């Protein structure tokens, strides 16, 4: 019998605070702005808010570079603003989950400022310092943000590891003092009454301590993933975290586990609760989904449904009874799902957004909605590198276009318009008014020009909007245990156009079919079936067919 838990029955809403709602006219979203929008989230019906990092940060990576874990980023407000937000969320019956970024800190964190002072400083081993080899970096690893993963520090004639930007030095989890400091900080936040953690790149906290060269990639650098993801002590560290922090509170915990496999996920999200509740896996959003690669993650291609289905069905079936899935297509690192997986043309945007939402929310696991996904917000258009703010894009451009001349500017711009993270970070579109109601000032990142037609105000006035469709999906999940706990069964596994599956619980069966194309396709799954239609993006259906982007959900008793 599946263990029940509130976080298995919840729908999570991810807020990227920088882009959600400005309240003080500086063009940057902030905590009072979020508090002001609690009624909107209550109307949508979500159970939990996950905030991307709000801690003190120089914003090299928009808050994923923390310089003080117990202070609020000045751009976002004060600790009092946080306490007000937490109280308002709880009063509205909404839980609040923080983003825990402890694989690395900012290089402006006090620990790193001390650590880099001398080889004998008490904080030296809070980070990963190595001698160079023949005047070069300790090994051939490339950071996820382009260029060497090692930064030479003149003062002490050593290199420090940074899997991400050079302003994000990796913490040394082998050091018990690091673990003590992290767990102490986590308990401090739990004592404030938060309801959980999303754990940034938590699969990377245990590195292969021999730091061997990685397999050489197309750009000539070594791939560090095999030596930093799912490392030798990662489960030991997480079980210690569970023992010293997590097990003392009733928390939602989700590990962002880059590189996680099914077998690793069974350990990270093990049913006995000794590590985390669930993980984010990356196979369905990675090149394995058929979107291809110009170089590294950069592509102008689109996922192929049969490949996406094979991946998601694998995760549904292989974690059954062993671990709990998370369900997502969108987040602050991914392009907008209706542009990537659906069809963001005016003709098909709403229908395909509803179809994707149905396909995801009817699966087994905890669904995540990224801010604006409920409005069918789309990718934006970058006209040049100047339109981009994200250092992942800027670094990639300088390396692949300027330095290595492996990609033309036109191709790289097309890749940015397909997969750049900034697509997800354009301001939330609240109204058709100035800057989409996000700010009275110049926004830190340009608003998507389509805000005049795609915005919350218009959606709330339109009974057929994606907003009300998501609201209904959330209500269904709260009302029908089969949606939460039903066993997943793949159907029509060879169909090139329809993604179909069933859910089974206590003698009931839920039938789901989604047409991922703009063409009508044959499908007789529902023919002759008599049941209760829970939701569809079409008012009328055709026997033996699914209409373009049609999604249907039928409950058979
Ligand atoms: O992302 C980790 C991660 O795997 C991403 O780098 C992802 O692979 C890549 O962006 C896909 O394009 C987390 C955070 O979600 C991300 O925003 C941070 O930049 C990163 O860690 C470093 O903290
Ligand atoms: Ca602001």
From TrEMBL:
It holds the Pfam family Alpha-amylase. Signal peptide: none annotated. Keywords: Glycosidase, Hydrolase. GO terms for molecular function: alpha-amylase activity. One of its GO terms (biological process) is oligosaccharide catabolic process. InterPro entries: GH (IPR017853), GH13_cat_dom (IPR006047), Glyco_hydro_b (IPR013780), O16G_dom_2 (IPR045857). Residues 14-425 form the Glycosyl hydrolase family 13 catalytic domain. The keyword Hydrolase applies. Belongs to the glycosyl hydrolase 13 family. This is Alpha amylase, catalytic domain protein.
